[in-house]
Amino acid sequence: MHTSSLQQNILAELDHELAVTRKVLERVPEDQFQYQPHPKSMKLGQLASHIVNLLAFKQLFVDKDERDFLDPNAPKPGPSPTTSAELLARFDQYSASLRQALQASDDEKLTHSFQLRRGEQVLMNRPKGAALRIMGLNHSIHHRGQLTVYLRLLDISVPGVYGPSADETGSF
Length: 172
Hints:
Layout: H1 6-26, H2 44-63, E1 66-68, H3 84-104, H4 107-110, E2 113-118, E3 121-127, H5 128-153, H6 166-169
Parallel strand pairs: 1-2
Antiparallel strand pairs: 2-3
C-alpha cells in the first residue's frame, strides 16, 4: 500500500493551485490595473499583487516559527508590479522559492507550531502544515475567486479553475 506524506500532499495541492492561479493571473490586463469594482474593493492590480505576495507569506509558514505584524524588521514585499510581465515574473520567482522551501521540509517539521502575532496578541497558532493550508492556500484561493469575478466584470475570458469555465464551454 502506498502512503503519501503530509509534505507530498501539500506539494501536490500547491502545484495544482499554482498552475490554476497562473492561468488566472495571465488574464489580468495591465491597462486595467486601476479597475476597482466597488470603493471597498481592492484595485485589480492590488488584488493580483496580493495573490502573488501571499506566496512569500506562505513560505514563512515553512521556514519560520512565527511572524509578528508589528516587527519593523520583518520581510515586506517589494513595490507592487506595474506590468503583467513583472506580476508573472514575481509569481514564478515566489512559486519556485515556496516549492523549494516545501521540498526541503518534511512531515515532522510541518507539524511544528507556527504563530502569527501582532505584538503580544496571538492571531493564530497552528501546525505549519495546517497554517499553510488554511492561511496560505485557502486564503489565496479566496482572493483568486475574487479575481475571476473582476475578470468577468471586465468581460475578460475566465479560465477554468476546477473544470471548464462558461467561457471555455460556451454555456453555464
